[in-house]
Amino acid sequence: MLLGKHRGPLASDFRRYYSLSLAGIRATGIPLHEVADLAANLPPGSAVARATNPEWWYTPEVSLLHSIEYHLRVGLWRQTPDAERGINQPEPIDLKGDGEQDKSENGPDVMTTDDMAALLGWSPTGERL
Questions:
Q1: 1-33: b or e for each residue (b if 16 or more CB lie within 10 Å)?
Q2: Which residue among 3, 40, 48, 99 has the highest number of C-beta atoms inside a 10 angstrom radius?
Q3: Could you tell me the pTM of the whole model?
Q4: Cα(27)–Cα(21) distance, rounded to whole angstroms?
């Protein structure tokens, strides 16, 4: 199934990670079960992973960073008059999307450093505004 639906990404990954050609893999003498193991153990960011899983980019590391970013914003908010009144508490950024926006194969929309600094209330040099 993987070979039929995702031949291009699989061929690319075998060249990139294993220096093997799909067309010439039989000539190498590698048993079919080992070829299947190689395909099954490609890394999360591989072309096959991107082709078969639309949320390939949402790794545990991304989840952790997402949580840290949100809690930093809440920490900054707690130092404001809005926090004393219990209003305008920050919401987590929806990285996975709500289904209404276009999703690229590269994951969610990209945020620039300047955009993140503005979101956190910092100057581009990292100082708090």
A1: eeeeebeebbbbbbeeeeebebeebeeeeeeee
A2: 48
A3: 0.49
A4: 10
Q: Do residues 90 and 70 touch, judged by C-beta distance below 8 A? A: yes
Full 3-state SS string of the chain: CHHHHCHHHHHHHHHHHHCCCCCCHHHHCCCHHHHHHHHHCCCCCCHHHHHHCCCCCCCHHHHHHHHHHHHHHHHHHCCCHHHHHCCCCCCCCCCCCCCCCCCECCECCCCCHHHHHHHHCECCCCCEC
Angstrom distance (rounded) from CA 93 to CA 99:
14
- 116: tokens are 């993140």
